[in-house]
Structure formats: structure tokens, C-alpha cells
Design goal:
Helices cover 25% and strands 28% of the residues. The chain is of the alpha/beta class and 358 residues long. Strands 14-13-12-11-17-9-18-21-20 form a nine-stranded mixed sheet. Its EC number is 3.5.4.26, 1.1.1.193.
Amino acid sequence: MNRTPRRRLFLFMDIEGLMKRAIKLALRAKGKTSPNPLVGAVIYKRGKIVGEGYHKAAGKPHAEIEALKNAGKRAKGGILFVNLEPCIHYGKTPPCAPEIVKAGIKEVYIGMIDPNPKVNGKGIRYLLNHGVKVHTGILEEKAREINRFYAFAVKNKIPYVILKIASTLDGFIGGFSRRYITCEESRRLVHRWRNQVDGVLVGIGTVLKDNPELNVRLVKPVKQPLKIVLDTNLRIPHSSKLFSTEGDVIVYSRRSGKLPSGEVVTVGTKKGMLKIEDVLKNLYSRGVNSLLVEGGRNVFSTFIKEGFFQEIKIFYAPILQGNGIKMIENVSMVVQVERSRKIGDDILVEGRNVHRNN
């Protein structure tokens, strides 16, 4: 198995350019494929692309199969570019590696090895054993970035967690009459994030105070995320908007009970709080690979204290409140700030948990 340098040209074949095309194809299905990864594939032969495709949704044909179908007989003797290692196991669809061999592909360039234990190098070994040349690590950093939800979840058996906080400049997230802290552009961006994750989570305090819908409204929805509430004593009102708007609902509580729609799942407690790890494990078992946590303070504090987050995104609105509910309480965190940018009137600061991101 050869590891190809980051930039290398074979005659007129732009290796990175062709992998970029595969990644661009993969991103066409952003938000649609979970719990499967985002995958795009390109078949190159005699100086041109003869076939391409991407995985459109879970249960649909994989990217390699779409590309082979698109290429037809022209695939024979071609070179395949794919951002994730081809699979070798049966799931909802047959494995891809045997079809690649069967089509006569002579060489494969791969962005990253699939961390799924059912694959994890087995697809590469199958190709090599059948005479196909294999190169890995092509634009690997970008390949990992677009599938960070999938890779983290399949390795750790819990969802990839993003904390989203809307705050005043002096660090308050509530306790005042203002309906929205952030501007419309920021709220629209949050709806785009909801469109890309599997679930949106809040605590019961947020439900009681704000009566949120937690669905996608401000952008065209690809799908509606699972709406998740942490409610230790099952206090959620049956009149909540969560039950009358689009999207399935699941409430985690130490008590059992019935809801107008959705499901109550009982979990254990620790010091009077629901066990977050048990909640996350249960969500993963339901196919939730990614989770956007939107409040409130106790929820943020618990996720941070226990280290169950991979990214944090804080919107700072140009408001000085002076008092109210602080964003977190009695916890500290080490975050690598990656960038800050202006969103409308607000400033968005984005960072990653340096201790738990693999």
C-alpha cells in the first residue's frame, strides 16, 4: 500500500484535483446520509473523467457503485478516486470492493481509511489481493473533516457533539425579557447546522422558558432532526410546540410516562442529574451520529464538565446585559479557538475540545 505525496502529477492527471472533485460530490448529500458517511467517487481514464457519483442517502447505492454505473464499460482500465475506503461488508447494500475489481478498475486513490471496524483496511486488502494498485492519504485532512461526525461516532459509539451558545458580550444567555439574543443571520446559520445534524438537544429549563420548536424553518429542510429533551422529573408540558411541529421527539428522564407524541426513555441519574454518557450511548444506538446542544446553562455546564463535546460555537451579540443567567457555572474548559467571524451584527467564535476530538 503506497502513501502518495500531497501534490503529485502523473502526466496530465491532477491527483488532488480529482480527489477534490470526489469530495465536492460527496458534499452534495450533506445532512442526508447519516448514519452513513459522505462519499463521492470519480473514475478517470485517458485524460478525462468517464464516470462519477456520490452516496445520496442511507440505503441507496454507494458512491463507487454510482460512479461505475455512470461509467459503464468505460470503467475497465480506469482509475478510481474516492474520499473513503471502499467497503467489503454487506449492509443495506452489497459491498463495493468486489464490484470495483469486477469492473476492471486498475488503480484506486483513497482519501482516508474507513474507521468502521467492519472495514478499517479490509477493503484496501481486498483490492490489493486482487491486483488493484492502492494509494491512501490523498487530501486526508479534508476527507476526515467532512466525515468527522461519522468517524468519531463509529469509533466512540456516541454522537459527535457541538455546543451552540448565544450570549451577550458580558456572558449572559438568559434571565431577561429579550426573545432573541442574536440577529436573524445568526439564527439562520443555526438552522443550517440543524439541517446537517441528526439531533438537537436542550434541557427542560429551556423548554419551560422558551417553548422552542427545535426544527428547521429558516432554511429549506433536508430533513428534520430528532428533537431531544433532558427532563429529569418529566415536567415537559404536553402543550409544548415540540409535539405539534415537524420532527420526532425523545425525552430522557428518570421517570417513565407518556407523551402526546414521541417517546420517553428512562436513564439513571448521578447526583440528581441524568447520566449524559448513558443518553449519548442510547442516541448512538438509534443512529444519531451528530448532536447540536442548544441549552441551557445546566446542560452546557454538564457537557463541558464531563468532556462530552467536540466543538463549541459561541455567538456574542453586541449587548451588555449586566445580570442574568451565565452561560456556564463552576466549570472550566480547554478549547482550541479555530476562528472568529462576523455574522450580521454578532461575532461567532468557534473552537474544538482539545482533549476529546478523536
